[in-house]
Design the sequence.
């Protein structure tokens, strides 16, 4: 009887442990994405091959896709998770592009075209970031706006565009334009939702 009870208790502990792991896994992927951002910048200035940098970037972007899928499938979407996801995305993309611009400038490879393409790539971040920071500091107990279809498409095109710019492929221009279009739409939608949630402005 005691053995049976012990097995039941052990099963409950394992079940609870698995539940905690599933609950925390999307957030762990967000933290991993932030770590990837530091690794990419570090490797970039150490002179690692561009292919390795892009490979790590792709892995980082995959964590973004996986954590979102897990959060939706297991219904783990929380205010903290949304904030962390946005912070991780911005940390990766902004730090990567800033580091890459500095790296190119140091090696006399930075051109006006690349600067323009990078700015277009960051259209969503440039538009939405001030409102995100504002929402973080205005404590009204409300959640951060949910991710829109435009934001998801922007992230996808950012993941496609950066490697194209890095490898100097001509298609990068067209992908950057598409990224910019979706980025502007995502930024505007974010501002609208953020103002409504933070200040009640419709």
Sequence:
């Amino acid at each position: 009887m005691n053995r049976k009870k012990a097995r039941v208790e052990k099963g409950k502990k394992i079940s609870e442990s698995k539940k905690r792991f599933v609950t925390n896994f999307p957030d762990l992927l967000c933290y991993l994405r932030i770590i990837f951002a530091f690794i990419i910048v570090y490797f970039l200035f150490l002179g690692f091959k561009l292919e390795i940098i892009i490979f790590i970037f792709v892995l980082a972007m995959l964590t973004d896709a996986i954590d979102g899928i897990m959060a939706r499938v297991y219904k783990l979407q929380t205010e903290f998770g949304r904030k962390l996801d946005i912070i991780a995305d911005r940390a990766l993309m902004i730090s990567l592009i800033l580091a890459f611009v500095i790296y190119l400038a140091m090696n006399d490879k930075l051109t006006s075209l690349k600067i323009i393409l990078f700015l277009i790539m960051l259209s969503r971040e440039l538009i939405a970031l001030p409102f995100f920071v504002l929402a973080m500091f205005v404590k009204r107990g409300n959640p951060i706006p949910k991710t829109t279809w435009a934001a998801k498409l922007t992230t996808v095109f950012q993941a496609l565009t950066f490697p194209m710019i890095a490898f100097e492929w001509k298609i990068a221009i067209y992908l950057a334009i598409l990224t910019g279009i979706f980025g502007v739409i995502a930024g505007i939608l974010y501002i609208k939702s953020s103002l409504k949630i933070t200040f009640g402005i419709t």
User: Anything to note?
Assistant: The first helix runs from residue 2 to 46. The CA atoms of residues 43 and 150 lie 31 Å apart. Residues 10-22 have pLDDT under 50 and may be disordered.
